[in-house]
Structures are given as C-alpha cells and as structure tokens.
Amino acid sequence: xxxxxxxxxxxxxRAGLMPGRPALSRIAGAGATGFFDTTxxxxxxDSVTCILTLLGxxxxxxxxxxxxYFEAExxxxxxxxDDLILRCNLVAAGEDGTLLSACGAGFGREELDRAxxxxxxAWNGRRxxxxxxxxxYKNLLILEGGAGALPALRTAxxxxxxxxxxxxxxxxxxxxxxxxxxxxxESRAVLAPFSREGRSLSAFFWSPSVRCALEPFAxxxxxxxRPAAVCATEVVRGMAAALGFDAPEISGATADTxxxxxAKARAxxxxxxxxPFVLVHVNGADEAGHRKNPEEKAAFLSRCGRELVRVLAExxxxxxxxxxxxxxxxxxxxHGAGPQPFFLxxxxxxxxxxxxxxxxxxxxLTGFVES
Length: 371
Description:
Blueprint: E1 4-8, E2 12-13, E3 16-17, H1 21-30, E4 32-37, H2 47-54, H3 67-74, E5 84-94, E6 99-101, H4 109-123, E7 129-135, E8 138-143, H5 174-190, E9 199-209, H6 217-221, E10 228-230, H7 234-242, H8 261-272, E11 278-282, H9 284-290, H10 294-315, E12 320-323, E13 327-328, E14 335-336, E15 340-345, E16 351-357, H11 361-366
Parallel strand pairs: 1-11, 1-12, 4-16, 10-11
Antiparallel strand pairs: 2-3, 4-15, 5-6, 5-8, 5-9, 7-8, 12-15, 13-14
Helix pairs in contact: 1-10, 3-7, 8-10, 9-10
C-alpha cells in the first residue's frame, strides 16, 4: 500500500504533546521518531506555511498572500486575477471592546450561521463586494478589482491577538483599509441582536489574498498518478486542489472536533490502495486550542489515537508518517512554532532520527532520505 502522511493540525501544545499517545507510542516503539522544522525563517506558524512546507514546497515558493484564495477554491467560488480575497471571522468581543475569541466562542453554530447570512444580506449587492458565509464563524469577502490594494493593506490574525482591543486590530492602509474598517464597524450594528452577557459579535477581516499557482505535487516528486487528500478544512482542500490532489467530499467530516474520524480512516485506507500518495489532515485539535479548551483538545486527540491512528496502523501496510503542522496553545489560543515531533512507520526506520527540515517529510516517508 502507498505512503500516508497524517497531519494532526495543532497537536503540540505548551508542554509538548497532548494525550492520545498510546497509538503514537506503539508506532514510535516499532518505528522511528524525530522532529521537523515546519516554520521557515521569516514566516509565522500558520497552516498554509507549515502544511506546504511538509508537502515539500520550499520557502521561496510559499505564497504569502493566498490563504483566503485557497478557501475560495475549496468552495468553488470563482475569483479573477485582479480580485482581493479576505477571510472574515465572526469574533466575540467583550464589553470593553477587547477580542475574546477568534472563532466566536460563546455563540452557537446556528447563531453564527445566521449572523453570516445577515451580513451577506447587508453587503451583497454593493458594487464590487461579494460576501460568502462558509458556515460557523468562517466567511469570505471578495473585493472585485481590489488586488492592487494588497501591498498597502495591513491586517492582523485574530487567533494571535486575543485580549487586545479590536480598535487596534482593524485593517489599515489605503482605501481598502478604510473600507474594511468601516464594514467591521457596520457589522457590529448589524449583529447587535446577538449580543448578550457582555459578549458581542463582530466581523474581523484578515489574510488578504490574491490568486496564485503552485507546482503540482506529483511533478515535484515524480509520482505517476494523482495523489489523494482526505480533508475537510477549507484551506487545506484549496491547497490540495492547487497542488493537484484529488480531494473527494467525505460524509461526516466537519473540520472540527465533531468530525467523523472513522469516515476519514476508511477513506484513507481506501485511497492508500490506489493513489501514489495520501495526505490526511485532521483539524479538530487546532479548533479546540483556538477555543482555549484543553480538555476538548485532549479528548479529541485521544479519539484520534483510537479511531484514526490505530486503524491506519492496523489496516494498512503503508509507510505512515504522523506529525503536527504547528503547535496550538490551549492557554492563549495562539499558534506556536519550533520543532514539531513526528512518528514514522517505515521499513528500516528505527529509533530517534534527529531534526529535519520540514520540506524533507515526504522524502523521509517515501524513502529518499537516509535515516
């Protein structure tokens, strides 16, 4: 069976790995361990950077302004070369105007869905503006013809700025900055009916993006046939599409802690029998970390060990590599860089192998790197 790379997004935490170790420990005992440097110099530890690094994309080829574009691709949202595409989180703010949660914690999924629909009704129809609710706290905004504003536009990632005043985190720079800041203020009025108990909702625009192109994964590694991606997270599905992966929809996969890990396991096992390379991405631990809920994160990673890692280890003979892309700290909700642990099952690989550049993960898994 063919190689499987399993990325447990945000698995690492402040004190190292969270629970879920028994299945990983069995792989480590029978195989090899080590660390990957997944965040190149000059980059922040975000999923686009770290996952592309693990998929062999060198730092010079990692697009710095593409995350929202990848999410649009995942949803089949058409964009033009001169469009500016932004992520829009529905964030929770306190009575004092500080950022409480980057993912709208304290509001239910139905409330967040309705809030996104209300913003779409308020903004769609304006000239050059398209707003797309993606479900929950996630949304996209497209400013048609706005790509030229990218160099001057400054935004802040909400998950890295908890506790700061929203007024300090507004988009800035040129007409686009002024427009987006005004829309953020307008959103608070539109979403005022959801306010309660010192907590309110606001649109938070960040990660401005434009269209980009990536070298196909199969060409980079000389594979015959199309690799497969088992994932539900929008940005990962978009990256997979840009890299030439087949990424079918998986029933029950939600990109959060309520995802069907058994459905992902079944899809990965099936794909390993036909595709030359299989990427499996699981996002729930990262989401729980952003919600600052270490108990939820620990419980989810324990499920990953039982329902996913164990199945891949027992029901395939594939070379298997398991690692996080970055850390997600449950005390602050922020991402963390630094070497990330890996667990490798591959014939001839044993013991502690040391620390590798993240770009060597695929070659280590497929056998092109000496251990």
